[in-house]
Amino acid sequence: MGDALLRVENLSVKRPGAEVLRGVDLTVARAEVHALLGLNGSGKTSLALALMGAEGYEPEEGRILFDGEDITDLSVTERARRGLTLAWQSPAGFEGLPVADYLALGMEEPTRERIEDALEAVALSPRAYLGRAVNSGLSGGERKRIELAAVYAMRPKLAILDEPDSGIDVLSIEDIVSLIHHLAEEGTSVLLITHRDEMTRMAERASLMCAGSVINTGTPEEVRAYFAQRCRPHGDLLGSQPWGEEAGGTYQRVVEEGVCDE
Amino acid sequence: MSRQAASGVRESVLKDHDPAWAREFEAMMEAYEKAGGRPDVLQAGRVASAVISANEVLTVSEIEGVTIEAEEQEHGVKARITVAPGTKVEHPVHLCFGMMAEEGLQEIDSEFEIGEGAEVGFLAHCTFPNAIQLKHVMDARIHVGPGATMRYSEAHYHGTEGGIEVLPTTHAIVDEGGHLETEFNLTQGRVGRMAIDFEADLAGCAVAELVAKAYGSGDDDIRVEEVVRLNGEGARGLTKTRVAVRDQARSEVYTTAEGNAPGAMGHMDCTEIVRGRAEARNVPIVVVRDDRARVTHEAAIGSVGKQELETLMARGLSEEDAVDVIIRGMLRG
Question: Does the predicted model carry a pTM greater than 0.95?
């Protein structure tokens, strides 16, 4: 692994009624695509929000080092200005805000060419989208692509992409993969939260989260194998409520103890 | 090619009048531009227009099918605008009302008569850039004839002091198959005290869309009261209100939609954003007098959404700038 851009040390976050992150340790290198895997409810989105500095995700313990600086107590704005950004899993809508203006917000020197370039990077036609508002008139998939375009337009040092493939049709996954390649080529590190095998294949390294902790880090193949051997047996029991009783005692132990089953 | 003064007014226009008129006109044009108007369009020959400063009618320009009668009164102007039946007016009629003075009263009594099957748009700009203790009263009566369409957009600029009272009262009658769209916009500078009172009566298959947008700060006081009576079969009405208030400003929005006939459909949509110690209130009233009518409402009042705010901050905007982007977008949308 090369020079670390992001180093998370022993990060713990409590939310009302739950400890969502428990002593997370994670390192993302410069210009690395790093996949973050885990079951629903394992803490991936909570980690993304804590890294971005979102309200309600302030750490109880631990620290976040970004580009050699401790950013644990910095605001969302201050983190963004240092080159860290996040594409939310379900992006917010902005009534009356044109796509062109939205993309320009994160650019140091916005130009029409760069705005169009960002839209083309997510396979959206500038002509069709520049004048549209970033609101409910867009489908979930379109909004998602525009969010990714906004991240690309910003040219951050680290982009946290929370399930960029969810809500995107299967045929378009290739466009998202291509965008992540673009980001990496531009020198942006990517922390990629995903469930999809084809997305993890593009990562140099991967980490597996379970019950609020990172329990394994390695190549994507190693982590997928670890996940398949130790965690997948419980998948068919989980349904849509992995924290519910139907998850069974074994999974409960995984959740409670923060380790995968033997 | 005619030269233009700093305000965008053609010098030939200024030269043809006495200096006092020219000064007043030029000042109005500068203020008109601040309110979002375009002086060059106002002076284009193909565009019907009127410029009224305090109680003085500075210019009136008519085009075929559009008649503007304006009569000066003690404290304002009485105006009657008629669009002949069947006339399709290509460019919107431009209206500029205002006062340069810091104090005083302006009363505009206006009547709009849109003939059967006519189509017309109006762009009105009301500007009071120096207001400290000023009152602007507008009493409008609108009649949209059968199958006619009227679109009326009014933007205000009140300067930075907030020393103004704006009291527009409108009663609109929309005949069978007629279409009325209005938009009131007060989002630049201070509001002062504003009370919009708008009533619309709709005949069968008539449509009315009433949009009001305002951004209050300081101790601004915003009151919007709108009533849409869907009296005819298949009439449709929408009220859309977007208000943002900050500091100690107050906003009260009262909307009523009455479904009084079979197939009548009404909807009231209100969003208010509150910052600081400001206060916002929304009271929708739904009245249905026919079991085949349907009236709905939705309201959202509160602060800026946390995720919207953090998304913009994650692009590097300060919290204050992010709030401003969200509010400006809402008011534009």
Answer: no
Within 8 A of B330 by CB-CB distance, chain A residues are: 95-96
Residues of chain A that touch chain B, judged by Cβ-Cβ distance less than 8 Å: 52, 54-55, 75-77, 79-81, 85-86, 88, 91-97, 105-106, 133, 135, 150, 154
Count chain A–chain B contacts defined by CB atoms under 8 A: 64
Say which CATH class A4-90+157-230 falls into. alpha beta
How many C-beta atoms lie closer than 10 Å to residue A105's C-beta? Answer: 20
What is the model's pLDDT at position A229?
66
CB contact under 8 A, A133 and B333: yes
> What three-state secondary structure class fits B200?
strand
CB contact under 8 A, A77 and B319: yes
How many Å apart are CA B313 and CA B333, to the nearest integer?
21
How many whole angstroms from its chain centre is CA A182? 16
Residue spans per domain, chain B:
46-303, 304-333
CB contact under 8 A, B329 and A133: yes
pLDDT in tens, A230-250: 664 344 433 333 333 333 334
CA B55 centroid distance within chain: 20
Do A162 and A131 form a contact (C-beta atoms < 8 A)? no
Average pLDDT for B88-104? 92
For chain A, say whether B333 makes contact (Cβ under 8 Å).
yes
> Number of C-alpha atoms within 13 angstroms, CB side, residue B243?
33
- Average pLDDT of chain B, as a whole number: 91
